[in-house]
Structure prediction request, 719 residues.
Amino acid sequence: MPLTQLSRGQSARLESCTLPEFESAELRAMGLKPECEFRVCKMGEPCIVSIGPGASGCRIALSKKLADHVHVRPC
Amino acid sequence: MTVAFIGNPNVGKTTLFNKFAGRRQKTSNFPGTTQEAHVASLDAGGRSLSIVDLPGIYSLGLDQSESSICRGVLEGSIAPAGTRASPPGGVLLVLDGTNLLRNLQLAGEVLARKIPTAVVVTMADDASRRGIHIDREKLASHLGCPVVLVSSKTGRGIDEARGLLSTGVITESSIPTEQSELERWADAVYADVCADDAPVGDRDRLTDRLDRAFTHPVLGVVTFAAIMTGLFWVIFTLASVPMDGIDWFFATLGAVVADVLPEGPVRELLTDGVIAGVGGTVIFLPQIILLFFLIALLEQSGYLARAAFVIDRILRPFGLPGHAFVPFLSAHACAIPAIMSARAVPDRRDRLATILVVPFMSCSARIPVYVLLTQILFPGSSGKQALAFTGCYVLGILAGLVSAILARGTMLRGRSRPMALELPRYQLPGLFYATKQAFYRGWLFVRKAGTVILAISVVLWWLNAYPGSEPSPVAESLRSEAAQIARAEPDRADELLLRANAEDTKFASRNTFLGRIGSAIQPVFAPIGADRQLTVGILASFAAREVFVSTMAVQIAGSEDTEDETVFEAVSTAERDDGSPVFTEATNWSMLVFFVLAIQCLPTLVVTAKEAGGWKWAGLQFAWMTGVAYVSSLVVYTVVTRVL
Prediction:
């Protein structure tokens, strides 16, 4: 399902990105890599996710246009 | 030996570099790019080292200018301007202890290049507080090089890290290069060296709340507007004190030079050309330094990344990204640092569109012109003056946004790149970094704008001063009349002498090279209501807008002091060569619109050519803005003339 269909506070794993190669590569380098676990901090514009195990990791804000193309699996 | 500092953005790499380099660092550019390089020389472990702070990157493999520079430096194909390009003798890999998993991927990419490397893990104390425990020995064993945990806040590990600069080793660990395998390697290393099972804490929940507020469609915009209003208020309030000081200093310097040197061309060159030119530029320095100081504070606090998304929502319909808001904001002080700050816009088309349109914003150099024209338009009505003043700012913003739509729809056509940003942690900003940034930007302004403005001021002074002419016949007769009544009516005689001086100035201004050029070019500006004197004012202000006010005052009243009521009166009631008033209502509105929209700043064009990558962009900017200004003024002049 697209990232934009999750709700705030929900955790999920990333399955794939259907974005142009350079944008997928950027997101992957920023930490949004396949199977990474993240928590949704805010939905809407922008969509904010906190990536990383436990208390470590980082926060990435994505415009809704990007988040629509990020496919995830709730966990 | 050269040691390159490499790491993700916001890992504390530059803070560490500053701690090692202190004041000995120099800032230059990587050739052919606008990316800054900080370089310093120091002794470490008895060896003389040159350390280079590279731009923060997420990966060496990305198609971004920062990644390409880092690749070039590691391969020895690129080096900061003024240094020889060769592969570095060592690398200091800076990793964020609170985000080690992602940082390990870049670590793997760098270590696989087999350059002697040492690793510094920053924010170690912060990581401990968050319940993340890093096993230093295990990490060093996996990476195959020395590792130090540091905390910039407490200073823990800093001396040890400094000792590592010259003792990096080539890793013997086998590190995969294929992306998926590298990610699995990073996962495995992380799982072995980090104990990290703390749940989401209060601090994260507070960050969640702040993020939601700062990026909220309504609350976010209100917060942004409040912060920006406060920022401008601080800039305009605090900057006025040093600006008055600078004004006083250059006025005094001019007076001293005028007293010391004998009358002649050298004295005039120094007082009217060099000192007036440099003073006219340096006076804007306090605003620029304050603006960059406050922006650096906001940037470090973590707010700026959130604000970028608020502005993205507003700017996106115009084909501009949220990143463009710092340039748009800075341009209200001065377009030069604004264009330089467009480097932060990652997409090339977005960046070019930003550079092309930011000079439409009303910079502080336009303020003296707005003040003069609105005072003439609405004498004695400060409310209407303020309204017209605000209208000028709004007109500039609208013209910029409409131009951006046109640029993105034609020559910069293409999909607008959606934003993805890492949101840094909220923190108290550091005054040292903000001060350093502010003074560095101030220095760039003085160096780039000052030199060009100085040269142009001297040329303008020469064009406006030569060839000299004999006293005007009208002035001669006024003087002889004054001499006859000097004893009987001394006050009236003084008044006649002042009028004689003004007549001389007007007469001389018609015969100077600039006056003759003005007469020749006047037909071009006649349709927007300009006579010979206004044409000279417009031509002179193509070097820098603020010159318009002093040029008009010098031509009409023989004095630059427009705050002097008699001079202001003379300018506002000045007559054309045919006896009709210079400033009619239609001319005034037309000139106001022209000065809002025309570029009229050579240093801005120089910086545009440099930052956009060619003079064709500067030429386009000049042609577009001047064309828009001329056509708009023509429409305004025609409409106002017909209506009134």
